[in-house]
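Hello,

Our lab assistant flagged a job as stuck in the queue for most of the afternoon. It eventually completed. Since we weren't sure the result was trustworthy after the delay, we are filing this so someone can double-check. Below is the sequence as submitted and the structure that was eventually returned. Let us know if re-running is recommended.
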Amino acid sequence: MIKSMNYKITGDNLQIVTVELEEGEKVYGEAGSMVYMSNNIIMEAKARGGILKAIGRKFMGETFFMTEFSPINGKGYVGFAGNAPGKIKDIKIENEKGFIVQKDAFLCAENNIDLSVTFQKRLGSIFFGGEGFILERLSGKGIAFIHACGDLIEMDLKDGEKIKVDTGSVVGWEESVDYDISRVKGIKTIFFGGEGLFLTTLKGPGKVIIQSMTLHNLAMALYPFLPKQQTSGRSGVLGTFLDETLGK
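-- returned structure --
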């Protein structure tokens, strides 16, 4: 059980989680998420849960194979990180209900945690939710680690307590939380408010995690500063030479 494991999340907005493993313990992660590991760690790619669950992970945006890590001849350690600036959050799952996260949020987990596909249950959420139709469900008993862009805000909603969140900014929520999409009211607000047509409504009880910056918004902010490929209608070495000669 990961309760006996030690782990440490280090860094600010480019975080790494390092998990220490006793011999016989095992963690698994998204392919490509491992940054470093001790020399005595054995890693093996597996289609965890069988072919059907592996296919489900492909729908979630994850890889078909997950990589399992376990030490031999004593203790070992493995470091995992996300693929964009953001935060890593440890999710403790101790009851029968699981934790729902946006697709691509899963980073790694102990061997007792099950990662499966789940779907939006309400029509509004399906068509207008920033997380999309397919979500990830973490269940079992233990600890999983998720990664999301920006900073993370964790809130514990009381029974019946509601909050409205920018669509796409919800990283995850406990299954006890009611999730739906509501339309922004007012014509002027819709067209000039800059927040879009819909907001996510979360109703407690339960824990929710919100991100300050989505990957889409980060990409849009960086786009104007990225080098643009210029095309002149000419191709090949000669075309490149003419462009440089003519100053195009």
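-- support follow-up --
The delay was a queue issue, not a problem with the job. The result is valid. The chain has one domain: 2-222. The CA atoms of residues 40 and 227 lie 43 Å apart.
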